[in-house]
Amino acid sequence: MSHEPRAVSWTGTALSLIDQTALPQTLRRLDIRDVDALIDAIVRLAVRGAPAIGAAGAYGVALAVAQARRENWTDGRLADAVARLRAARPTAVNLAVCVDRAAGRIPEGLDAVLAEADAITRQDLAANRAMAEAGADWLLKRVAADRPLRVLTHCNTGALATAGIGTALGVIRELHGRGLIETVYVDETRPLLQGARLTAWELAQEGIAHKVQADAAAAATVVGGLVDAAIVGADRITRNGDTANKTGTLGIALACAHAGVPFMVAAPVSTVDLTTATGASIPIEQRGEEEVLNLIGGGITAPDGTRTRAHNPAFDVTPGTLITALVSERGVLEVSSGQLPGDHWS
Ligand SMILES: CSC[C@H]1O[C@H](OP(=O)(O)O)[C@H](O)[C@@H]1O
Which residues bind substrate (predicted)? Predict the structure, then answer.
């Protein structure tokens, strides 16, 4: 699949986003011309995925600079808009890092900010390609099967979540391109169904065989010998290899460890946070209860009028000790064997 249309693209005067809340039923784009509209799109997951929100955040700084010029903002108002954009979602480190990179160019003017955002996009595109190849090569050597592979993935880590072909889904695309994917087990990824809606949509566009499954089925799929490997993305990776990713990832890693199935994390180095030592310090986004309860009509009301509550952490943290391979554009670290990002990617 050509990864056009891109999840995030700059039109020259506005930020054009695929509205991921409308997929798979409708492919439509949002024309974003101001910072608050972009913050809303990020919070609603109209644009989502660590590298994609990083790129969107960088172009969002350009929107803020253009808006400041149009509306005669003070420097303080511009700084406040940038700070709100940077904080739109707390877990994916890419958003803060990319907003900081673009904001650092503000003194040079709008063109310099746009140039930084373009560089971020180009770097992610190249990183996707490099990690797809490195991840596929490592996996094929590790599994050493003389047949196409059966893999499991969680959430969406494809062209919709990045500037390129994807992270974990990029590895899967590379394997498919070599004729080495038998099927992909796609976790639906409750409550927002990024797997069932977005990953299935991306795989279907390219004729990559896949089966959507309930998140609750993932452990038995792994332990039952139905997959050769699990490949997931990341939102923040700390110095010791602990990795925050979509909620449900930890359970897959535990099942893989129990079953001796390779567990691979694919992420660009822009997702590695070398300022944070362990996963205990990663801020985990807590999202609205309605996202969990909507499926059952908003929840149950007890006779005394109290209503069902919901617990909705958007991410969980997988210890590096459960990660067989961490692949980025800088190569593969066998984290569970002691190869840590803090030692190798500083
Ligand atoms: C290629 S990073 C994708 C990463 O981001 C997703 O989270 P969200 O859909 O909330 O943005 C998920 O954790 C994926 O692994």
Answer: 48-50, 89, 194, 245-246
Pocket mutation for ligand 1, best pick of 23, 155, 199, 272 (most atoms within 8 Å of C-beta): 155
**CA–CA separation, 212 vs 194, rounded Å?**
11
Q: 88 vs 144, which has greater pLDDT? A: 88
Tokens at residue 307, please?
Answer: 């209503």
Angle, CA 168 vertex, CA 94 and CA 291 arms, to 5°: 65
What is the pLDDT, as a whole number, of residue 3?
Answer: 44
Query: Could you report the per-residue pLDDT of 108-131, keeping only the tens digit for each?
Result: 999 999 999 999 999 999 999 999
Alpha carbon of 245 to ligand 1 centroid (Å): 7
* Residue 5, pLDDT score: 64
Q: What is the end-to-end Cα distance of the chain in Å, rounded?
A: 34
Q: Which two tokens stand for residue 5?
A: 């249309």
Looking from the CA of residue 94, the nearest atom of ligand 1 is 2
CA 209 to chain centre: 22
What is the 282 CA–ligand 1 centroid distance (Å)? 15
Which amino acid is present at 74?
Answer: T
Q: What amino acid positions are annotated as catalytic residues? A: 235
Among 153, 243, 245, 269, say which to mutate for ligand 1: greatest number of ligand atoms within 8 Å of CB. 245
**Structure tokens given for 97:** 């890092």
Alpha carbons 237 and 250: distance in angstroms, whole number: 14
Q: Which CATH class is domain 130-344?
A: alpha beta
8-123 and 130-344 share one CATH topology? no
Can you tell me the ipTM of this complex? 0.98
Residue 265 DSSP SS3: strand
Task: State mean pLDDT over 162-184.
Answer: 97
CATH superfamily of 8-123: translation initiation factor eif-2b, domain 1 (1.20.120.420)
297 pLDDT above the threshold of 90: no
Is-contact 238 277, C-beta < 8 A?
Answer: yes
Query: How do residues 93-104 score in pLDDT, each as one tens digit?
Result: 999 999 999 999
247 within ligand 1 shell (Cβ under 6 A) = no
Give the domain ranges of the chain: 8-123, 130-344
